[in-house]
Amino acid sequence: MTTVADRPAARSAGRRPGALTIGLSRGALELKQFVRTRAYLVFTLLFPVLIVLIFGAAFHGSAGGGVSYTQYFVTGMIASGLLATGFQNLAIQIPIERDRGVLKRLVGTPMPRSAYFIGKIVMVLVMSVVSTVILLALAVALYGLRLPDTGTKWFTLVWVGLLGVIACTLLGIAYSSLARTGRAAPSMTTPVALVLQFISGVFFVYTSLPGWMQQIAALFPLKWMTQGLRSVFLPDAYAQHEVAHSWELGKVAVVLGAWCVAGLILCLLTFRWTEKD
């Protein structure tokens, strides 16, 4: 026989977990699926490492200001790793899940829809940290890149990385609605990411690119992510070699923050749980 005192406990015991709790559980599931899927694991984690090793062996010389080309390039590849885990990964993964009917089945369950996105965000954040640690360890061990030596630079690394990951994640979710099938997703996503890397100061020194190319790159988050990370890992004197002769960290924060807001709006307007047909 249940007493009056026992009724709140009974109701609490029978209460469904909230969206955050379910989302965190889904995040653990997303991480397991990610690690078990070789294509995701190789493309997101190992491919940037391979690119760093190839470019580090093939290209030498100076980027100016006492900074080697390899050191300049590695900072850009760290930003590219964030782009890969956020934008590329989700823009390819979500259409495949939609094509297979995974999203349609999830909509039919009592799970809050927000829990699905919380799970994706958890997966992206964890893999972004792993990717950054791997690339940093490689750069420090092989190419003489120095870790931040002040608390201010560590703080800059955190907020640039966090804003960059949030922007790339939201844009990846929004962009996933453009692919009509799972098979079309890689061919629609990979070229966009490669073009952004070429024009945003990853593979080439940004100031050596044509002016029109710099103006296009400045419209997108990756350029500002690479610039913010250069302020963390390159000497302060190198700021004179930037376009504005400074790191423009205030502008970096504004642009990345604006893309976070724009990405959220695009997600709300464009995301689809099922195919249009």
From TrEMBL:
User: Has UniProt tagged this entry with the keyword Transmembrane?
Assistant: yes
| InterPro entries in the record | ABC2_TM, ABC2_TM_bact-type, ABC_2_transport, Nod_factor_ABC_transporter
- Could you say which protein family the record assigns here? Belongs to the ABC-2 integral membrane protein family.
* ABC transmembrane type-2 domain location: 39-274
In terms of PANTHER family, this protein maps to: NODULATION PROTEIN J
What broad class describes the main subcellular location of this protein? membrane
The record's subcellular locations are: Cell membrane; Membrane
Q: Which UniProt keywords apply?
A: Antibiotic resistance, Cell membrane, Membrane, Transmembrane, Transmembrane helix, Transport
Topology term for the membrane: Multi-pass membrane protein
The answer to whether UniProt assigns keyword Membrane to this entry is yes
Q: Name the residues that span the membrane.
A: 39-60, 72-96, 117-145, 157-178, 190-209, 252-271
- Species of origin reads Planosporangium thailandense
Q: What is this protein called?
A: Transport permease protein
